[in-house]
Amino acid sequence: MHLVQQGKYEKALAAFEKLLPTAPQEIVERCRMYSATCRRQLERSSLTFASPEERFDFAIARLNGGDYEDAREHLNKVLSERPLSDYAFYGLAVLDSITGRAQDCLTNLARAIEINPRNRLQARSDNDFQNMVDDPRFTELLYPEIP
């Protein structure tokens, strides 16, 4: 466990795999769980992307898989590489909607619309914003009054 906490996943994985065949039955499942965690962490650190768009696609796959923390991390990395990526702001807005972060959703969606106004039309029919439909600020953002 100390190796996992220290981020030494390769050594921790080796230790768990060595322990697994002789482990008491009551800790076998826990060893498997920690082994899987180590594998995920090792896989995560070895990821490389040819472009921010490729990283974005991976982030959306993580979002769709329910790994919201990892999705957020990758979407933010896209923005650090390309600060005017409307699609990354839109992805963060979707993630914020799904995770109940209404203010962040509105902020990110407003930025996505500012960079690319077509995002307003896309958001109008996007079911991922279902949590936001009752928020008047969301409605105002999608259907602004024209003077």
What does this structure look like?
There is one protein chain. With about 150 residues, the chain is mainly alpha-helical. It folds into two domains: about 45 residues; about 90 residues, Alpha Horseshoe (Serine Threonine Protein Phosphatase 5, Tetratricopeptide repeat), CATH 1.25.40.10. The protein contains nine helices and no strands. Helix 4 packs antiparallel against helix 5, helix 5 runs antiparallel to helix 6 and helix 6 packs antiparallel against helix 7. The longest helix has 21 residues. The mean pLDDT is about 90.
What key phrases describe this protein's structure?
2 domains; Serine Threonine Protein Phosphatase 5, Tetratricopeptide repeat; mainly alpha; 147 residues
Give me the strand/helix succession.
HHHHHHHHH
Helix content range: over 70%
Query: What's the domain count?
Result: 2
What is the average of the pLDDT values? 91
What count of helical segments does DSSP give? Answer: 9
* CATH H-level homologous superfamily name of the largest domain: Tetratricopeptide repeat domain
The top-level CATH class of the largest domain is Mainly Alpha
Class computed from helices, strands and strand pairing = mainly alpha
The gyration radius over C-alpha positions equals 20 Å
- The parts where pLDDT drops under 50 for at least 5 residues are none
Specify the overall morphology. Answer: elongated
Based on the structure given, which CATH architecture of the largest domain is correct?
Alpha Horseshoe
Largest sheet: none
CATH topology category name of the largest domain: Serine Threonine Protein Phosphatase 5, Tetratricopeptide repeat
How far apart, in Å, are the first and last alpha carbons? 62 Å
Question: Proportion of β residues?
Answer: under 5%
